Amino acid sequence: MATYKPIPGWRDQYNPLRGLTMSKIVAWEDAAEMGDYADLHWFWHHMEQTDVVVQGAVAKRTSHIRSLDWEIRVIEKADPFLAAEQQDVLRYAYDRLDNLVEAATALARGVFTGFTILEKVRTGYGPLMKRLDPIEGRFWKYDRDKKRWIFEPTGAAGPAKGPPADERDLVVFAPRNPLFKSIGRHFFAKALALADWDVALENSANQAIFMIGPPGTTEEKERIYQALAESLTSNLRGYLPNGADIKVTDLAARSRLPYQERITYADQQIVLAATGGRLTMLTESGSGTLAGEAHSETLLEMARADAAAISDVFNDQFDKEILRAFFPGQPTAAYFRFNVPQKAESAKDVIEAAANLAWSGYKIDQKQLEEKLGLKLEMIAPPGA
Question: What are phi and psi of 41, to 5 degrees?
């Protein structure tokens, strides 16, 4: 049964994007540095729901975690019998989890939001668990003096209050240098540019028309001409007194200011922070180009780092409890790990390696080479043969 249950409150009806300013974002960041994450995480929640680029960047970064296989490995030089027993127990414990993939993906999102906390929902049989349920970050505060987490069920902002959470019931991932600052600030810059662009487009949809009255116009006549001018500009038809003139101002130039360039730059910075790549990575594979391969490799390196960090979290906050219960006083001989595939070798890499080996005096079996290349190889007869 879940222990940490959020209570609906006023914040559920509050949209932090309404009236958003940079000073508000900085204040939320400062509060988060002090352990109060309520406002910052609520802002992130709405930002991710609103901005498709942020959504895509987060999905791209976390998609690798969802696709990974996992295994229980053994520690080198560990007792082989103890390692085999611990492998079986850990594999059984992880197989009992209903939502391992979802839990790992939630942990990966901590790279953006600063931390993720999962609650261990137990089966009722010893330390075994059936789920690892994520609890939204806005309901947590961190007491930096006493180094403990405190659950705030209403999600209210302010200093940490209440009893500390029992961290034996939690799985916590709090990486260094989260991305919420860089992404949040570029999101705000983009929002400003979009708002100004919309105003410019609205103003430039119709030309600004000014009526110049004839010489010697009296104050009484000005009121009459004002009414004529408003009628004229409303339906583009009307009568002007002799000597009057019309001046038209073209506002369309304002709508051609570099709004799109500013928005594109902000989007590029968001994707660069999240994935180490460029904006096209969200929709294009980039295969066949050096730049595309470099971006894919960068993202894969990030996926390896995320998978290793999340594996370490499971080792420390899941494996240890299981092993202590089933193997009290015994050293750790097995551990959980995600398997991140290495970069696939291209045909060019294989051919170059084969040529280098041949130059060094080694011969590669033709069947193995064909299997690597996926091609059928035949010798070319020398000229004149």
Answer: -70, -30
User: Do the beta carbons of residue 89 and residue 322 sit within 8 Å?
Assistant: yes
Confidence (pLDDT) at 289:
46
Residue 287's pLDDT is 45
For 101-114, the pLDDT digits (tens) are 999 999 999 999 99
Integer Cα distance of 54 and 57 in angstroms = 5
Identity at 245, one-letter amino acid code: D
Q: At what angle do helices 38-50 and 52-67 cross, to 10 degrees?
A: 100
Burial 294-318 (b: 16+ CB within 10 A, else e): ebbeebbebbeebbebbbebbbebb
Distance of CA 260 to the CA centre of its chain: 23
Hey, which residues does 135 pair with through a beta bridge? 117
Long-range contacts of 133-136 (CB under 8 A, 24+ apart): 133/2, 133/99, 133/103, 134/102, 134/103, 134/106, 135/4, 135/6, 136/6, 136/41, 136/45
Rounded Cα gap, residues 112 and 135, in angstroms:
15
- 67, two tokens: 């696709």
Between the CA of residue 311 and those of 122, 304, 319, what are the distances in Å?
Answer: 20, 10, 10
Q: Is the pTM of this model over 0.85?
A: no
| Residue entry with tokens 């360039």 | 261
C-alpha neighbours within 13 Å on the C-beta side of residue 203: 15
